[in-house]
Amino acid sequence: MQASGSVLEGIGNTPLVALRKVVPPDCARIVVKLEGQNPTGSMKDRMAQAMVARAEADGRLRPGDTIVEYTGGSTGASLALVCAAKGYRLRIVTSRAFSEEKLTQMAAFGAELTLIESEGNLITKQLISDMIAAAREISRQPRTYWTDQLNNADSIAGYHPMGEEIWRQSDGKVDAFIQAIGTTASLRGVATVLRRHNPAVRIVAVEPAESAVLSGGKPGAHKIEGIGIGYAPPMWDPHLVDEVIPVSTAEGEAMARRLAREEGLFTGTSSGANVVAAIRLGRRLGPDATIATLLVDSGLKYLSTDVYRRAARA
After folding, report:
1. How confident is the model at residue 94 (pLDDT cuts 50, 70, 90)?
2. Which of 121, 264, 282, 311 has a CA positioned 20 to 30 A from the CA of residue 137?
């Protein structure tokens, strides 16, 4: 019997599968990384592990310290997993604008939650600013390390292995990579690796159509969790991407439901938005091209949201 030394060894090496039924005939081949198979059900396990490990390595984080972060949930659950495995106290600033499942999962791993109110339980620029301000205030306490995900470039390295996995699993046949923008770390990490292998790989960002600030629009409220903070994230590099595709909340939700029913792939709204954008690009590139994108987390994180409540009523 071969047993892993820690749950953290279960992070990464997720499957890459081709979509079959939701992709129209005139479209490129679309392959998706099943990041819901990470220990917490999210790709954010990769970046949480990287942020903590790098802070430990250079002394910013020491045994007995407390970690603090603001998060919509998936980063919080991933940090909570890492903290549980390594023995750190974790304080999370979040909101009921995000799914109940995410709040419950963070608490289950031992995170202490501070909840910030949001009008109408919508994700807005003001909510993100309020969450950041609360995390900053907590970080001033002694022996407290703020991972500060929007500004922490350590997270980018956590996604370099994902880029290598995509390249290897696709046999080096990737013409484009698409990813929705939260902190930008996953897009930057994967794009760096793919372009190292092939400088011609097309890199495409996805954002909520209701808050299409990267496309030159105005910030607005939306319900695509984990992305669209209402302004360009500090780590955003417009020179890295070839284009930005806005996708609405309704489109992302509808595709998430289709992926579950037609492909057997259970995921959330930002993943649905990734696939919507991949199909739009795929129709332009044609059937000889291959596009890689991410199903960033598990649909189990969204059972209480409109995505699957509507599916249950349908």
Report:
1. very high
2. 121
Whether pLDDT at 146 is above 80? yes
Q: How high is the pLDDT of residue 231?
A: 94
Tokens 């599916």 found at: 311
Q: What is the CATH number of domain 44-146?
A: 3.40.50.1100
Query: Quick one: pLDDT at residue 314?
Result: 54
pTM: 0.93
Catalytic center residues: 44, 270
Dist CA 220 CA 218 (whole Å) = 6
Contact between residue 286 and residue 26 where contact means Cβ atoms under 8 Å apart: yes
Residue with tokens 């954008």: 277
User: What pLDDT does 121 receive?
Assistant: 85
What are the start and end residues of each CATH 3.40.50.1100 domain in the chain?
A: 7-37+160-313, 44-146
Residue 1: per-residue pLDDT? 55
Rounded to the nearest integer, the mean pLDDT of the chain is 95
Angle made by CA atoms 53, 55, 57, in degrees to the nearest 5:
70
What is the side-by-side order of every strand in the sheet holding 29-34?
Answer: 16-18, 29-34, 290-295, 176-180, 202-208, 243-247
**Tokens 């808050």 -> residue:** 211
7-37+160-313, what's its fold?
Rossmann fold (3.40.50)
- Sign (positive/negative) of CA torsion 263, 265, 269, 273? negative
